[in-house]
Amino acid sequence: MSHRLRLACGFLKSGALFDEHSSLLNSGMPSESPRSSSHQPSSAHSGTKHFFEARENPPERYLVAHSDGGARGNPGPAGYGVVIKDEAGNKVAALSEYLGHQTNNFAEYQGLIAALEYAIKHGPKALKLISDSELLVRQIKGIYKVKNATLQDLHGRAKELIAQLEWFSIGHALREHNQEADRLANEAMDKGMGRSVARAAAPVSSAAQPPQEFEGIVRNGKVELVGGSLPDGSRVQVRMKK
Known about the structure:
elongated; 8 strands; disordered N terminus; 5 helices
C-alpha cells in the first residue's frame, strides 16, 4: 500500500528544544539537479517542484535526531555522531562512526543518512533532524545547490531515504545546542585515530590514584619492566636513574 509523505512546516512549539539564540529552518528539498555552487542560494525556481510543499504539524509519534559530523584538518580524520530521542525526549539510540580521511561536509551528510536509516529501520517513520551545519540544512531545503560530486551522491541518497518517511523536518541549531552529538563525533574520530575516548573518566581516576612507578632496564634500546607490567596504550614518562 502506498502512502503519502507527510512533511513539516516547522518544529515543536516554541521553547521545546531551542531558545531564542537558536536558528530554525523548515524542511525543503528541490527536485532539480544540484549541479551548482554549494554556497550560493538557488535562484532557478522555474520548472521546479519543491519537495517540501506540504505543511503539517508533527505526528503523534516521531523521532528527534541531533546530528553532527567533523573532520580534523578538513579533509582529515572524520567521523559523525547522532543522538536519537523519541517525541517525549527519551534517548533511544546513540550512533557514531569513524569515516577515515574525509571532509566536514561528507561527515555531516553521513550523520544525516545514519539518522534517516535508523528511523526507517526501527520506526516510527517520522523524523525531526537537528544539525549545527547550516550548509547541510540549506542544501536539504533546496536553498543551496550541491556542486561537489561526492556530496551530490550523498544528497541524492538522503532524498531517497526522506521519501521513505511519512514525515520529516530539518532545522539548524548552534553548536552549543548539539553538544552530545559533537562529543560522539569526536569520540569516533579519537577511536579511529587510536586515541583513548575515556576523557570524562580520566580526571576522576587520575585524582583517585597516585601515579605508579616501575623499575626497568634498557635492553636493545627498549625498556623492560622489572616486577610489573602495563596494558597496551599506557602513557609513561621515563626518568634515568644515576
